[in-house]
Amino acid sequence: MPANAVQIYLARDYQGASATLEEGSYDVQHLRAGEVGNDAISSLRVSDGYQVTVFEDAGFKGASAVFTADTPWVGADFDDVISSLKITKQGSLRMLNASAAPTPVSLGTMDLTATVSMEHTISH
Ligand SMILES: [Ca+2]
């Protein structure tokens, strides 16, 4: 069951228009062309093993936050402002736009160190 890494929703609690995105980078053009739109995301679902980094501005700039689990509301700081996002597999940690992120954003539930230490063993 690969694919469908992240679903984005127009409204809280996974309501309203939605779009399904696979691993990759999605700039504002992609969001504008989709069902949800620019400056519109309010909730999102993240499949196990993936993480999504959202950005306030186009071009993966501005304030950013990382979500690693289903999020019924992205929070006041990111509601209806997301203009670009990147979806990566957990474990492939890279500094995204490090120079433009002066203040870390804490949403209370995100702990990157905990994410890193998660086991990725899949037993068959
Ligand atoms: Ca925006």
Distance between the termini: 14 Å
Portion in strands = 25-35%
**Which structural class should the secondary elements be placed in?**
mainly beta
Number of domains: 1
Supply Rg: 14 Å
In N-to-C order, the SSE pattern is EEEHEEEEH
Ligand names: calcium ion
Oligomer: single chain
Biggest β-sheet: strands ordered side by side in the sheet: 3-7-5-6
Sequence stretches where pLDDT stays below 50 over 5 or more residues: 114-118
Highest CATH level, the class: Mainly Beta
Descriptive tags:
four-stranded antiparallel β-sheet; mainly beta; single chain; 124 residues; 10% helix
Task: Describe what you observe in this structure.
Helices cover 10% and strands 33% of the residues. The chain has 124 residues and is mainly beta. Strand 1 and strand 2 (15-21) form a beta hairpin. The radius of gyration is 14 Å and the shape is globular. It binds calcium ion. Calcium ion (CA) binds next to strand 5.
